[in-house]
Amino acid sequence: MAKDIILKGKVHKYGSNVNTDEIIPARYLNTTEPSILSKYCMEDIDKEFVKRVKKGDVIVAENNFGCGSSREHAPIAIKAAGISAVIANSFARIFFRNSINIGLPILESPQAVKAIKNGDEVEINLNQGTIKNLTQKKEYKSQPFPEFMQKIIKAGGLLRYIKK
């Protein structure tokens, strides 16, 4: 059994259908360098995001997060900006796969999305599939991450996991 992966941070909350072009606008896709992409993350829907986000923070969104193009730049930009996980009611299928491949945990939990407010502090246990809202002192469930996915996340992504 893998050691628990605990993530903790402040919530940045968004609505439904946040697409990959809003996460990282296409005009910045002339690079895959994470440090450059992070400077423009969420720019078209939240100009203050990169100024507010701190390492370990969490994005919470409603439905179909990551829809749009299949570019892996979107989860790379989110992770490089400092986000430790994304919680949503649902994710676009390719965004889900790209996120795991680059080592960005994403969780589905309609219960958590409904209750968590922008600015709340949350703690996520990927092994147990629990999301604790430390601000509201409530706990929500998600699917626990299977052990092989935890290994990919711990390694920092699929390529780093394969190289090990």
Q: Would you mind describing this structure in some detail?
A:
The protein is built from 8 helices and 7 strands. With 164 residues, it is an alpha/beta fold. A 7-stranded mixed beta sheet has the order 4-3-2-1-5-6-7. Helix 5 links the parallel strand 3 and strand 4. The chain is globular and about 40 Å long. The model has no long low-confidence stretch (mean pLDDT 95).
Mean pLDDT: 95
Q: What is the N-to-C succession of helices and strands? A: EHHHEHEHEHEEEHH
Biggest β-sheet strands, sense, barrel? 7 strands, mixed
Q: How far from one another are the termini?
A: 18 Å
Give me the secondary-structure category: alpha/beta
Q: What strand order characterises the main sheet?
A: 4-3-2-1-5-6-7
The 3D shape can be described as: globular
Helical amount: 25-40%
Radius of gyration: 15 Å
- Helix segment count? 8
- By oligomeric state, this entry counts as single chain
Question: How much β-strand is present in the residues?
Answer: 15-25%
**Number of DSSP strand runs:** 7
Unreliable stretches (pLDDT < 50, length at least 5) are: none
